[in-house]
Design goal:
Mean pLDDT: 92
CATH architecture: Alpha-Beta Horseshoe
Number of strands: 10
Largest sheet: 10 strands, parallel
Strand order of the largest sheet: 1-2-3-4-5-6-7-8-9-10
Structural class: alpha/beta
CATH topology: Leucine-rich repeat, LRR (right-handed beta-alpha superhelix)
Distance between the termini: 38 Å
Helix content: 10-25%
Shape: elongated
Strand content: 5-15%
Order of helices and strands: HEHEEEEEEEEHE
Radius of gyration: 19 Å
Number of domains: 1
């Protein structure tokens, strides 16, 4: 037990040390003094009314936080930031996303919650490394076919949107662990849902799925926590 504890402490220390080495810039002007050194930029809750074009100068940027602003659109040029791994755009006023989003092939985490999005670009299917996608609180009615090609996706939250159905292609998301569909007008889930062998939690609170169907899902997904 003591050895296991020491191993955990060592791993935590290594992760902490790594995170300490990466400077999190919170001032755009200071970041512009050394653009090639900028790996992480945090401009969350700065009352920004638009996407700062200067961000496009940070070619080595891996983490970009712009959540909690008043941004209404993202430029096509964002596709040039090909080293991006994490992109936070939640709690803005976005109504659409550029197709160039699909050029961010190293993206692992994408937070788009609480915007005015009605759809996703077809190019989203290019994000083969994406593990975490948050879309809750938007106005999305349907997911593009390409979405089901996100083979690395582990956590998907599209709660409280306007999704009416989930495709049988859901089975293609073979690494999915968390599926959050709360508050959507979904009346059923495809039979293929039970093929998600790594699923840990399925949340369907406030949907139109019948009690009988929920019981059936629970029986067919015995190792999954079904929240209703």
């Amino acid at each position: 037990m003591k050895n296991i504890f020491l191993v955990l402490i060592t791993l935590y220390s290594c992760q902490f040390a790594t995170s300490q080495e990466i400077k999190d810039y919170k001032d755009l002007n200071k970041a512009l003094e050394n653009p090639t050194d900028v790996i992480s930029l945090n401009l969350a809750y700065k009352s920004l009314g638009s996407f700062p074009e200067e961000i496009l100068k940070f070619e080595n940027l891996e983490v970009l936080k712009l959540d909690g602003n008043k941004i209404t659109s993202i430029p096509e040029e964002i596709g040039k930031l090909k080293n991006l791994k994490q992109l936070y755009l939640g709690f803005n006023q976005l109504s659409n996303l550029p197709e160039s989003l699909g050029n961010l092939v190293n993206l692992e985490k994408l937070w788009l919650a609480q915007n005015n999005l009605t759809s996703l670009p077809n190019s989203i299917g290019n994000l083969k490394k994406l593990e975490w996608l948050a879309l809750g609180g938007n106005k999305i009615e349907a997911l593009p076919t390409s979405f089901y090609g996100l083979s690395s996706l582990r956590h998907f939250n599209v709660g409280f949107s306007k999704i009416t159905s989930i495709s049988k292609s859901i089975k293609e998301l073979s690494n999915l662990e968390y599926l959050i569909l709360d508050g959507n007008p979904i009346a059923d889930l495809p039979p293929e849902t039970v093929e998600l062998s790594k699923l840990v939690r399925l949340s369907i609170k406030g949907t139109l799925i019948s009690k009988e169907r929920i019981i059936e899902l629970k029986n067919n997904l015995p190792n999954v926590e079904v929240n209703q």
